[in-house]
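Co-fold these.
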Amino acid sequence: MQTPEEKVVDILKNNRIDIAATLPCDRIKALLPIIARNIKTIPLTREENGIGICAGAYLGGGRPVMVIQSTGIGNMINALLSLNLTYGIPLPIIASWRGVYKESIEAQWQFGKKLPAILEASGINFTVIESLIEIDKLDEAIKESFVCSHPHVILISPAVWEGSTSEVPKPVEICARNVDLTFSGTILKPVLTRYDAIKVIAENIADDLIVANLGIPSKELFEIKDRKLNFYMLGSMGLASSIGLGLALVQKKHVYVIDGDGSLLMNPNAIISMGALDPRNLTIIAIDNAAYGSTGNQETCTQSQVDLELLAKGCGILDTVKVHTADELGKALERKTGFIHVIARPVNAKCPEIPLSAKEIRDRFIEAMRK
Ligand SMILES: Cc1ncc(C[n+]2csc(CCOP(=O)(O)OP(=O)(O)O)c2C)c(N)n1
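Predicted complex below.
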């Protein structure tokens, strides 16, 4: 007899799911290891980051799902609306629904009880599975998400797993290990603007993929060199590098992400995941103008406190470089360095709006990748 956990994995496999981005909940501690044995699993450090990774994986030709605790949806709402609903990107989200059924943790009650109303108000489709006999609703929800190109949350009650005989594996043994990192860097007075840096990037990239950060970076790239293989972000601050990572996981092409210091500091989880997964075909170009450039150059803490290259190394990305000039940037791109820290001046070029809708950006990007 199949356990409920095995049944769920069967449904995922029958739907050709090839990536599962996960973050644990106690109630699914038997489900997660069975998923990991059957489907490529990306362990997350924050659920919002998973939205970007899964969006990139989908755009690149994959069929991802997320498997999380329902509370994580609270960390994902902006991303679900500004990325999945705006661009029309499917994502089945299997959420262990806490706060309602036999819940003893008081901190789960507020969000758990209100969650259906929050999803309803957000225009996000959802399905509730109260018991094992309803498990086939999962299959319908996954299909609905991919056919209609939007996210679909499946709230699974802990009642579904009651009486399951699936085993929970013992924790892995923690081994001794060295931390071996010496670092020193010099940040010179910046000479390049973001526009100068993007010109160098556009000149050095042939038929590779570019994910461009929201706001002025995307507009500058569009003006300098529009191409179908550019994915312009229109919102979802912090997710450019996550999308790039998801693309790199499923694509053979090299992926370049034009990110910003403010955005990377909003979601350092992206480079934590990159360090863990270590894809060889991903370059994050962190254009560090020490400012939230697109909103008027308000100071960020790279001006005095945080060194992004050291942060990347601390996340496990060892292939890093700091560049100050067009020549240095060109060489770093040629070498396909994993993390390029570009020291730039806080200057915004005056560029027009991008005359493409989100779905046009999506469609031409997907089509150009298939060629
Ligand atoms: C969640 C969220 N908070 C704030 C904003 C407003 N916002 C849009 S772009 C931006 C600045 C991004 O700065 P950075 O990543 O350093 O890139 P730059 O514009 O300097 O190239 C901000 C704060 C937003 N879009 N979303």
